Records
---
Amino acid sequence: MYYISYIEEYPIYEPAEGGYYYAGRSVIDVRPCKTWRKARKVFNEWRRWFEKEFGRAGENGVSAYMPGGCDKYGDGQIIRQNSKYVGDGKYVMLTRYEPHDKGYEPYC
């Protein structure tokens, strides 16, 4: 199985060591696909939507990471909108595992 997901980050404040922020993530939408071909088709559709919403790679902090040879046995197909603020990024990702929300993890 392959999973295409749209993820938004949000800031989390950690008061330890004088206080700092780090990014939590919230999975907004996930689409499972049984074949690699279907997964690439859906990823490219979502990528076109993402570029229409936030800009093309190289504009407005949008970057695309797609390893050479289409990494069909691992992870790593990502298009991302970076931000100068922690926890303000958004991205579309193609992976072989189902993504989970990752929120507050206490520093201990």
---
Amino acid sequence: MAKPKGGLTAWFGKGPKGDWVDIGAPKKKGKFQACGRKSATGSKRKYPKCVPRSKARSMSASQIKSAVSRKRSKAQGVGGKPTNVKTILKKKTSGRKSRNNKKKN
């Protein structure tokens, strides 16, 4: 029986959907540590914000800082569920869009 395409192996393994890294724990020369930590109580590392390596490479330093701070500012593991935040926020527009007001003749 053939293995199904996708699944957790594809998601967390290497490839376009996989290879997750912790953007809150940078290494030297722009590299990132692998996602996760051994235990929350015994770890020196703060709560991880994980994204695929391809996404991490495309993010600017300010986007990374924003995503990590938003993730860590929320209460983690409420009700036994993981806390998720958007990785990249879209800019809010300032109210109404300008319209061409045409006079009716």
---
Amino acid sequence: MSSPRMATALSRFAREPHEPRDKNMSSQNSMPRVGVRATGWFTLALIAVFLSACERAGSQPPNGMPPPEVSVVTIAPKNIPATFEYTGQTAGSREVEVRARVTGILLKRNYAEGSTVAASQSLFTIDPALYDAAFKRAEADLSAVQARLQQWQREVARLKPLFKAKAVSQKEYDDAVSNQSIAAADVKASQARITEARLNLNYTRVEAPIAGIAGRAMRSEGNYVTGPDVLLTTVTQIDPMYVLFGISDEERLKLHRETEAGRLVLPKDGQFDVKVKLAEGGLYARSGKMNFTGVRVSGTTGTSEARAELPNPDALLRPGTFVRVILSGAQRPNAILVPQRAVLEGPQGKFVYIVNAEGKAEARPVQLGDWENDDWIITAGVNAGDKVIVDGVMKIGPGAPVRVADPNAPKAGTPAAKAAVNK
């Protein structure tokens, strides 16, 4: 409301009499004239204050007053590293089940449960008596067939010159040659039985197939072990350590679209650098590489499996631990960053204020990408060279003239600013 209109309203209110609404009200029941006049002036004062406030709210700043001061950032695209974070779980790089290859009574456990074992170290001993006897019997059988072979070899050697001289029949010579061949075959069969008996005897010594951490024994001494059907223990190799995690199909498609659009450059062959964040919040000191990405998407979780490998010489990482997996090595070329506090929410979505060529605030709708520390990555809406208003947005509206603050000026409240005021 303008000042003339306000003055007219006030003067009209002052001239009008303020009588009781009920004219039939007796003078004894009516308010005293002084009370009516005081109430009227009080109401008049309230109206004046209200109209004055309306006039201030709806009017522009008086002539000569400077426009509100704002701080801006000038958009300058730059290359920034891109990182991705997922939930993962550690696993041994090799996890082997230890099983006996022969049946028998378990005589002894030869390792400390939970300790580090070397490859080929004996873990269990199965009663070898039967297998030792079988091996010796096979050796004796071999000696017998070897003697028979030597006998027929000598017989063939004796008959050969006689056969040439036609002193013996063809049948007699052929039978000797055949018996020599049969004895030679028996020797080979006996040698195979000796090899089998030797293997079975050696298998009574159950060894660690790899170096790693041996688990608890699943069978104690005195139990009858029925060969490979019975699990005795496990050995897990924890150096290097695997970290398994899942990448959602939505995330995979998003990365693909950003790569195709040129907004994201992935490392060659997908060899991301990998670091892990432990349960207590700290980062694991050693980094590794991503070495596997599955093709199949799980119908249960909607994710595809991925795996990273990290060195673990100190055995700090243990299998089954939940960690946060941080992938680095990708890059966002010519990314546009805007401080998060500059992005506002409107009826049409996210927007920022920029200072246009006329020195006025202009609302600009934007599309947001990911966070980068304290900034938003803007994928559309602003361009290089635009001046985005960061501080002072609460003092302006669309089309309002603004004054850009000097970025080199000392901030209010600092000793430098107080010194400048006192000059």
